[in-house]
Each structure stands twice: as structure tokens, then as C-alpha cells.
Amino acid sequence: MTGGEGGDILLLMRNFRCAALAAASLVFAAIPASAQSSIEELRPVTNWNLDYAEDSCGLSRNFGSADAPVTLLMRQYAPGAPLALTVVGRRTMRANLDAEVHFGPGDNGNARLMTAIELQLENGLNGVQAQTYAPSDNPVGADASAQWIAVSGVFDGDIRLETGSLQPAFNALEECQYSLLEYWGLDAEAHRSLQQRANMRTGDEWVGTALLRMPDSAANAARNSTQWMLFFVGADGDITACRALSPNTFEQFATHFCAMAVERGSAIPAVSAQGEAIASVLSFGLDVRTSAEPFYTDN
Questions:
Q1: Three-state secondary structure call for residue 174
Q2: Cα 130 to Cα 171: distance, rounded to the nearest angstrom
Q3: 169-207: pLDDT as tens digits
Q4: Residues 112 and 27: beta-carbon distance below 8 Å
Q5: Around Cβ 27, how many Cβ atoms within 10 Å?
Q6: What is the rounded CA–CA span in Å between residue 23 and residue 136?
Q7: How many CB atoms are located within 10 Å of the residue 88 CB?
Q8: pLDDT score recorded for residue 109
Q9: Is-contact 283 243, C-beta < 8 A?
Q10: What are the boundaries of each domain within the chain?
């Protein structure tokens, strides 16, 4: 079935098993007009498919040809969490990965430097997985208002996925996130109109303490990377539970860090439209540097 402009949203359970081969820088930016003529334009050959999983929500769609499609997968592991973007196909990879992904044409040249991992999937599929910010909360944000997603520096030839408006797809992703909150036992309806999301307190000492107490084997495995955690934050601000946000987080690092988070951690609770603190979740990215002083960022 061929997807039309924007595409219908269908339900599909899809599982990508992959092996990471190499890392490279990833830039999200506007494509110069002079470079657009050399890009292969791929139209959709399926509708958007929405995957309701127990730990995440995923959107996928095939482009190009039905017999040898390029698949786009966007997965989000919690509301406000980074978006894991995967593009795979039976295509020859560049010798040196230098990935760029562009949401166009409405990003106004805003560049975002991220990390990309080259993938080798089953059945001869190759591609790239990137981590970018969550879809904009603003309905006319650069991501949601985009009409295409271009991928360069990954395959031998650069491609542009003619998605049509991404707004319906991201609306469906958002609804899936509310279902995820309900599945986790949280007040999904209250989260539709929060005054304030759960957030980290600036300069929390327990974060640095958790790193200092980290076993060398766990700390060294995660060194010079960003490790993403998911905190469950009570109405009183206590962190009641913690786990790795996604499969890309080092399991040993997450186990030790989460133990400290539940023992000593706290955060600023979410606040409902009525001004009441409520239980919520918080995605937390910890940049593990070579120094003992941590640098961290949250959503």
C-alpha cells in the first residue's frame, strides 16, 4: 500500500537487531540549495506505522521501492526524551561515515551536533542510528513542520525521504506517549497540560557522588559518552525508580548509577495545570567525561 501525503498511521510491531560498528558526528541543519539537486528523492511506499511497545513508542515508514526500500524508524522512550532516528536499506555504505540529517525546509538553518552510529542489520541491511532532540513542543517547530528528511554522508549516494508533513506522525507519537504514561501508572490526562515538567535541580551533589562511587569497569565503559536514564519522580521530588532510558545505555553503568539515584537522588516534581505537584518521569542525560566533575543535561 502506498502512503499518501503525510500518510495514515498504522500499528506495527517492528524489531531491529543491530551491531554498532563505528561512531561519527551528526549534524542537523538546512541543506544548501546548491546541494539539493544531487540528492536522490525517495517517495513513501507504505503508510506510517506506529509501534506501541512497553518501554517506548516508534514510528516507521518505507521509502523508495517495495522490493528494496529504505526504512525510517523514529523511536522515543519517554515524553520529552531524545528521539532515536534510524535509517536503513540495502545500500552500499560510505567508507567513512560523515552523517548529516536535515529536516526541511523549515529549520531555518538551525544546526544540531549529535552522535551517529553505523549499523549492520540482519538480511544485509546497512544504515545509521542517530540520537536527536525530542520533536518540538511547538506544532510549527522545525521537526513537525518539515516536509522531508534528507540523509547524507551515510550511503554512497545521498537521499531525501519525501515524508510529507510530519505533523500527523508526531501527533500520533505524542498520543502513544500518553498511553505509555498510563501504562506506567501515571496520570496521563494531567500530563497533557502541565505547568512544569519534572526537572533536575542544578548542581545536585548526588550526581557527582554517584560517579565517584562508580566501579572503574562501569565508569571506563561509559567514558566520553552520554548515558541516558529514565527517572520516576514522586510528587515529593524523590526519585522512586530508575532505569536505562534505552538499549543504547551501558547496562553496568545504569545499574550502579540508578542504585545511587534511588538512594539519594531527588528532582523538581512535575506540576499540574491546577498547580499541584504530581508523579512523573524525567529523562536525564549524563555526559561522562574524563574528569571527576560531571557535566549533565536533562530534557
A1: helix
A2: 21
A3: 989 999 999 999 999 999 999 999 999 999 998 877 888
A4: yes
A5: 17
A6: 26
A7: 22
A8: 47
A9: no
A10: 9-179, 193-298
Closest CA to 68 of 116, 22, 29, 125: 125
DSSP-derived secondary structure letter, 240? E
Task: Determine whether 75 is exposed, middle or buried from the number of CB atoms within 10 Å of its CB (0-12, 13-18, 19+).
Answer: buried
Smallest Cα–Cα separation from 115: which of 126, 100, 103, 127? 100
Amino acid code (one letter) for 127 = G
Hey, which bits of the chain come out as E strands?
9-11, 18-28, 40-42, 48-52, 57-63, 70-76, 83-89, 100-104, 112-121, 126-132, 148-152, 159-161, 225-233, 239-244, 270-271, 277-278, 280-288, 295-298
Q: What's the number of CA atoms in the CB half-sphere (13 Å) around residue 227? A: 28
Amino acid letter, residue 95: A
**Geometric angle at alpha carbon 56, from 214 and 65, rounded to 5°:** 120
For residue 268, with 0-12 CB atoms within 10 Å meaning exposed, 13-18 middle and 19 or more buried, which class applies?
middle
The answer to pTM > 0.85 is no
Output the CA torsion 104→109→111→117 (10° steps).
Answer: 30
